[in-house]
Write a structure and sequence with these properties.
The chain is an alpha/beta fold. Helices cover 39% and strands 20% of the residues. The strands form two sheets. The protein has a five-stranded mixed sheet with strand order 5-4-6-7-8. The chain has a three-stranded antiparallel sheet with strand order 1-2-3, with no helix packed on it. Helix 1 runs antiparallel to helix 3, helix 6 packs parallel to helix 7 and helix 8 packs across helix 9. The radius of gyration is 19 Å and the shape is globular.
């Protein structure tokens, strides 16, 4: 381990692309400012360890492991191991949002087996009521000539705001991580009525992550869904 002594305002370079700045020192606590390329995720060590553990657990999940779970929605047979892997990418995004002090809801947009956009709920971070995870994901994906060949993954059942974006852009397939903590208040029926294929994985990681956040921050959650 390399130990460096730095004062407030001084910087440390990690390689050529990651810059750390000492922002504040209060007793035993140090606040760091981090500048890094957007493709390099930055987490606290405990969050990184949790993500690594969840990734390892998810790698062992087989579709048959989920087939018998109870569900308020019919469980389609058309979900695949690839769906589980992309949902894990959405979970990683949700963890990033939680690490930033926001809501743990993540989303990825996929075309031909490749993630073309990823985002997470940044309503608190950006003080933007429209910055839901799916909207952030679509924004980060940038301009697309068509969405007819894409799949949108979200750790939580999309609300009407995000479901409207799905219908507006013609995204044909949505995979939700769970609806136990939030069922969309009718958005699932809305999506299906517009011909969108909607799958609900009832993912235990998604359920527990959201459950803990709602329990710990009910005011932020109620603000997010307009209660």
């Amino acid at each position: 381990m390399l130990v460096l002594s730095r004062q407030i305002g001084q910087k440390v370079m990690i390689g050529k692309e990651i810059e750390l700045t000492i922002v504040d020192v209060r007793g035993e606590k140090v606040r760091l400012g981090i500048m890094a390329p957007s493709e390099i995720p930055v987490h606290r060590k405990e969050i990184f360890d949790a993500i690594a553990a969840e990734n390892q657990a998810a790698a062992t999940i087989q579709p048959n492991d989920l087939a018998g779970a109870s569900s308020p929605f019919p469980r389609p047979a058309e979900f695949s191991q690839q769906d589980l892997l992309f949902m894990q990418a959405a979970i990683d995004q949700a963890r990033m949002g939680l690490d930033e002090g926001g809501l743990p809801i993540g989303s990825v947009l996929v075309r031909n087996g490749q993630i073309i956009g990823a985002g997470h709920n940044r309503r608190i971070q950006h003080e933007d009521p429209m910055a839901h995870a799916e909207i952030d994901c679509l924004t980060n994906a940038g301009r697309q000539t068509t969405y007819r060949d894409t799949v949108l993954y979200s750790t939580l059942m999309p609300c009407f705001l995000c479901s409207g974006a799905v219908v507006q852009f013609g995204i044909p397939r949505v995979v939700a991580g769970e609806s136990t903590n939030f069922n969309g208040h009718g958005s699932a029926d809305f999506l299906r009525s517009k011909g969108v294929e909607l799958l609900n994985l009832h993912n235990p990681q998604c359920i527990e992550m959201m459950r803990q956040f709602i329990q710990q921050h009910p005011d932020l959650w109620h603000e997010d869904i307009g209660k």
